[in-house]
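A reminder from the course coordinator: this example appears on the midterm review sheet, so study it carefully.

Given structure:
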C-alpha cells in the first residue's frame, strides 16, 4: 500500500482533509496565517472568522496560540493581529536555501535588462501564484510587486503557465476550484483564457495574458516542470501595454523566456 505521506499531490495545495495524515488542528491554524493578503497589516478575529469560515471562539483560541508562538503579533490598541516576525525569518530561510531562486536570479536580471521588462518566478499557492523572485529593467508601475506577493492564477501569464503544465486530473481539479472561486459571470472568460493558454503552451511553449489581469499589463508565461514531474514553477515576462505589443511578446519575449527557463532547469539539473 505504501506510505500515505508519499501520496500527496505536490503540484498544488488543495485540501487533503480525507488524507489519513491530515491534521485538522494544524490546518485551521495555518488557515489563519493565509488570510493576510498582500498589503494588509492588521486583521481582527471577526474578519478572520469570516475569511476562514471558522467559529469566532475557535479563531480566538488559534490567534492567541499563534501570537504566543510569534507567528502573529497582537496590537492592544487596535485589538487586531498582524503577522509575526517569526514568519519573516522563515521566509528568508526559504529564499536563501532555494536552489532554483539562486540559479534563476542572475539569469532573470539578464533577461529583464535585454528586454527592458519585468521577469517573475512563481509557484502555485492554492488559488493564487506566489512570487518567488523578481527582476526589473522597465519602469511599469503596475509590476512593482515584491517576492511573497500573490497574484491571480487564472488571469496572469504566470498562473496560466502553471495551469498549462498540469497533468489532466490535477488540471481539472484546479479548474473546479477556480470556477467555485469566481462569480458566475466571471468564469467563462477566465476559463477560455486558461484553455487558450494550455493550447498555446502545447503549440509554442509559452502563453499570454494580454490585459486580462490588468488592462495595461501584457505578458507571456512559461512553465518549468521538475525532471521527476512532481513540481511546477513558472516564469513570466512582461511590461506596460504602451511599451509591449502582442507581436513583440511572440517574437522576442516568449523565445527569450523559454531560453531562460531551459538555462535555469539545466543549472539545477531539473531538481526544482
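Designed residues:
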Amino acid at each position: 500500500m505504501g506510505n500515505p505521506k508519499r501520496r500527496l499531490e505536490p503540484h498544488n495545495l488543495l485540501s487533503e482533509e480525507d488524507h489519513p495524515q491530515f491534521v485538522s488542528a494544524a490546518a485551521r491554524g495555518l488557515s489563519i496565517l493565509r488570510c493576510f493578503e498582500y498589503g494588509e497589516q492588521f486583521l481582527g478575529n471577526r474578519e478572520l472568522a469570516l475569511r476562514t469560515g471558522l467559529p469566532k471562539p475557535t479563531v480566538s483560541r488559534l490567534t492567541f496560540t499563534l501570537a504566543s508562538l510569534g507567528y502573529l503579533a497582537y496590537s492592544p490598541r487596535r485589538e487586531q493581529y498582524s503577522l509575526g516576525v517569526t514568519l519573516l525569518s522563515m521566509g528568508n530561510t526559504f529564499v536563501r536555501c532555494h536552489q532554483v531562486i539562486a540559479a534563476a536570479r542572475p539569469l532573470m536580471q539578464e533577461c529583464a535588462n535585454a528586454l527592458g521588462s519585468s521577469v517573475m518566478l512563481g509557484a502555485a499557492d492554492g488559488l493564487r501564484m506566489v512570487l518567488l523572485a523578481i527582476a526589473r529593467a522597465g519602469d511599469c508601475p503596475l509590476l512593482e510587486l515584491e517576492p511573497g506577493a500573490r497574484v491571480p492564477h487564472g488571469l496572469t501569464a504566470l498562473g496560466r503557465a502553471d495551469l498549462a503544465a498540469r497533468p489532466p486530473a490535477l488540471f481539472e481539479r484546479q479548474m473546479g476550484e477556480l470556477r467555485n472561486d469566481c462569480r458566475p459571470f466571471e468564469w467563462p472568460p477566465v476559463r477560455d483564457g486558461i484553455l487558450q493558454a494550455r493550447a498555446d503552451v502545447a503549440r509554442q511553449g509559452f502563453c499570454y495574458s494580454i490585459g486580462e489581469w490588468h488592462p495595461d499589463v501584457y505578458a507571456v508565461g512559461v512553465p518549468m516542470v521538475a525532471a521527476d514531474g512532481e513540481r511546477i514553477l513558472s516564469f513570466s515576462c512582461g511590461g506596460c501595454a504602451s511599451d509591449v505589443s502582442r507581436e513583440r511578446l511572440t517574437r522576442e519575449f516568449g523565445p527569450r523566456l523559454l531560453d531562460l527557463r531551459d538555462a535555469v532547469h539545466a543549472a539545477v539539473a531539473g531538481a526544482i
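Strands lie at 72-75, 80-83, 118-125, 128-136, 150-152, 207-210, 217-225, 232-240. The radius of gyration is 19 Å.
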